[in-house]
Design a protein that fits this description.
The complex is a heterodimer. Chain A is mainly α. Among the domains of chain A are: 38 residues, no CATH class; 173 residues, MetI-like (MetI-like fold). Chain A has a two-stranded antiparallel ribbon with strand order 1-2. The longest helix of chain A has 35 residues. The radius of gyration of chain A is 26 Å and the shape is flat. By secondary structure, chain B is mainly α. Chain B is built from 16 helices and four strands. Chain B is globular. The two termini of chain B are 30 Å apart. The chains are: A mainly alpha, B mainly alpha. Chains A and B meet through helix 1, helix 2, helix 5, helix 6 and helix 8 of A and helix 1, helix 2, helix 7, helix 8 and helix 9 of B.
Chain lengths: 343, 368
């Protein structure tokens, strides 16, 4: 009997009644999800007058579809559409990949190692940074020199008086500190970040956006991947260590393959966050590094929102992400842990 | 064998540990300390335009004082009214629940004096908060941006979690076409928030929106439900739920898919019902991931801004204005200090709620 169950892979084999009910619920929610998107599609084929004269539902039946909005975006504004699109692709892919890389590694570290950062050292570091900012802002010292001087000062202080402070923090404190970096609303940090990149002469570049998104998305990766790693049985890793594998080898050959579903879900999430980010992009880019969300918001012109252009832009923005979701969905579906700890 | 394991693990502790965590810590540190310090300074100062530029003057805690006691108090904290009988009932229920939770803790094995003090403080703060929220929602009262944000966060997250979990459970069944549903359910998350906000502005239009026939049938065609405070808040919440249920869905789905099947199989062999399987096996295994995704979503939800801004511009009055939007409006009028002060108040609220949540819920759930 157990053999039979195993062959069927899933324990939930729905009866016809549950199946019907499931389809009803799933269908209802699918309608809720799809109708607004359908409305976008329909609107993108409308003339301004057709939008303003009340609801029309079916192109070709109750109104005459027109390609004017698509022509405007793809022909008249071709160059202004392609550049932000290209920027968005580059920024989203690069920063998500980097965040996934660093975040996953850090999450594994937080799960399997014990860290004891000393409280005194942290306070000294913050003090040194504040000092650096004061010298840069008040005394006009170039930021490169100030930064290097501060780091030297910090290491000197760490080696001399730093040893007196014994109090230390744990892994959970590091994790909470990481996630707390996302708590300040972007409105509050845009201005300092703007000044930061202005000093580094990186305003309106893709580098600035990639760095910002990397920093703000890292905590999410760390938190999500931490939970996935915790659910991997430690016995597997112990076996590998006994067989002589280095920690890096264990991580690459055992932990990473086993957590593919989590990695894929997290990557999709990062991609979506960076792909759609609006407020920070608004401040950090103007012409060269403009991203798509800015273009969408820019359609709210002085004559009121240009619904038709907006719909086209939103639609061409979702298509690649849907492609990614379809391509990556089967990795989420694959439960790699099944039967891993047997025997 | 044992000495080798120990030697290896000590080597691991010394070397690999730092290699694993250092890059992430350094990146976050370098890009976060600076903005944090600058905006703290801004929140303690006032921007003034002088000839040929502007100057930043240090004013101490004046910006915070304005929010808590001065001209911005009605806007930020709201107006308190008298508790209605229904509100008294809600308050009583919440109090009883809190008392029960505390009693359970006192009787449990984890009990310690420090823990009791910590929990008592949390309980007092929590009950005061509930009392305050209820009074601003009572007749005669008016919720400020703080309370509105709290409503968005708690109502939104509850609805989104329940919906996300239900949908994830349904799509882990072996149904034909479940892959189609999985991809469709992810769609809302992939639209840029600004786009979603404009889309919902189209949909909530009672005159030219697609639901015009329904409004007309209800006799509400000339009445804009977005002009009613609770109607407008509901519109924002519907938009938020539409967009962010997929986040709960995808994370819970991945967690469900990577659960070992053996436990459920064993339960099934022993004759457990589906409800028992869910309640005793599936749900406990989901709790760590749930606790994390709720925390992440909570932090993001506190920053809600695009939807109320585009849908209603925070109106009618300030009925749908969230804290971030409040901060943004202050920013737009060049009140940089006031804006930063609101942001820091928000940070304070989120950190207090976040720490309580991590200590009281997350840690217990993840460490068993």
């Amino acid at each position: 009997m157990i053999k039979n169950l195993l062959r069927r892979k899933s324990v939930f084999i729905p009866s016809p009644v549950t199946m019907l009910l499931s389809y009803l619920v799933l269908g209802a929610w699918a309608f809720v999800v799809l109708f607004p998107i359908y409305w976008l599609v329909v609107t993108s084929f409308k003339l301004p007058i057709q939008v303003n004269e009340g609801p029309f539902y079916l192109p070709g039946v109750d109104y005459q579809p027109s390609l004017h909005a698509w022509r405007y975006i793809f022909v008249d504004l071709w160059r202004d559409t392609v550049r932000p699109y290209f920027n968005t692709v580059v920024v989203a892919l690069t920063s998500s990949a980097l965040a996934l890389l660093f975040g996953t590694v850090a999450a594994y570290g937080l799960v399997r190692f014990k860290y004891r950062p000393r409280l005194g050292a942290i306070l000294m570091f913050i003090g040194c940074m504040a000092l650096a900012i004061v010298t840069i802002v008040k005394l006009g010292v170039p930021w490169q020199i100030a930064l290097i001087a501060t780091l030297i000062l910090f290491f000197l202080a760490l080696k001399t008086i730093g040893r007196r402070f014994k109090r230390s923090l744990g892994n959970n404190d590091i994790a909470f500190w990481l996630i707390s970096q996302r708590m300040l609303p972007p409105v509050a940090v845009v201005l300092p970040i703007y000044i930061l990149f202005q000093r580094m002469h990186l305003l309106d570049t893709k580098t600035a956006l990639i760095m910002t998104y990397l920093a703000i998305n890292l905590p999410i990766v760390v938190w999500l991947m931490r939970d996935y790693f915790q659910s991997i049985p430690i016995e597997l890793e112990e076996c590998a260590v006994i067989d002589g594998a280095s920690p890096y080898r264990v991580f690459r050959s055992i932990v990473l393959p086993l957590s593919t579903p989590g990695l894929v879900a997290t990557f999709l999430l990062l991609l979506v966050f960076t792909w759609n980010e609006y407020l920070l992009a608004l401040f950090l880019s103007s012409a060269k590094a403009q991203t798509m969300p800015l273009l969408v918001a820019a359609q709210n012109a002085t004559r009121g929102p240009q619904w038709w252009y907006m719909s086209v832009l939103v639609l061409i923005m979702i298509i690649p992400v849907i492609g990614m979701a379809i391509a990556l969905e089967r990795f989420i579906a694959r439960g790699l842990l099944v039967g891993a700890v047997k025997g | 064998m044992k000495t080798r394991w120990q030697r290896l693990s000590s080597q691991v502790e010394r070397l690999a540990g730092s290699v694993f965590i250092m890059p992430a810590v350094l990146i976050v540190l370098l890009l976060s300390i600076f903005p944090l310090i600058i905006s703290l300074y801004l929140s303690l100062s006032r921007l003034r335009f002088v000839k040929g530029g502007f100057e930043i003057k240090f004013v101490g805690l004046a910006n915070y004082g304005k929010l808590l006691f001065g001209s911005q108090k009605r806007h930020f904290l709201g107006v308190i009214g008298d508790l209605s009988p229904a509100a008294w009932l809600v308050l009583a229920v919440v109090m009883v629940l809190i008392a029960l939770a505390l009693w359970r803790y006192v009787r449990s094995r984890r009990f310690s004096a420090g823990g009791l003090i910590y929990r008592s403080v949390t309980v007092v703060v929590l009950s005061l908060g509930v009392w305050y929220v209820l009074r601003t929602l009572s007749p005669g009262g008016r919720p400020g941006t703080l309370v509105v944000t709290l409503i968005y966060v708690f109502v939104g997250i509850t609805v989104q979690y329940v919906l996300g979990l239900g949908l994830a459970l349904l799509t882990t069944q072996r149904l034909p076409a479940r892959r189609f549903f999985r991809v469709v359910f992810l769609l809302p998350m992939m639209i840029t928030p600004v786009g979603v906000a404009y889309m919902f502005r189209m949909l909530t239009d009672t005159d030219k929106g697609p639901f015009n026939p329904i409004w007309q049938a209800l006799g509400l065609a000339n009445f804009s439900w977005v002009n009613n405070p609770w109607g407008a808040r509901a519109a924002v919440l519907i938009g938020d739920t539409w967009q962010w249920t997929p986040l709960m869905f995808i994370v819970l789905l991945a967690a469900l898919e990577s659960q070992p099947v053996e436990c459920r199989e064993a339960g099934l062999v022993d004759g457990a019902s589906r409800w028992q399987l869910f309640w005793n096996i599936t749900l406990p295994q989901l709790l760590p991931v749930s606790a994390t995704i709720i925390l992440i979503r909570m932090i993001e939800a506190f920053k809600i801004m695009d939807l109320p801004n585009v849908l209603t511009s925070g109106g009618p009055g300030t009925a749908t204005e969230s804290l971030t939007l409040h901060s943004f409006f202050a920013w737009r009028t060049f009140d940089l200090g006031g804006s930063a002060a609101i942001a820091y108040m928000l940070l304070f609220v989120v950190i207090v709620i976040g720490i309580s949540y991590v200590n009281l819920v997350h840690r217990q759930v993840t460490e068993g």
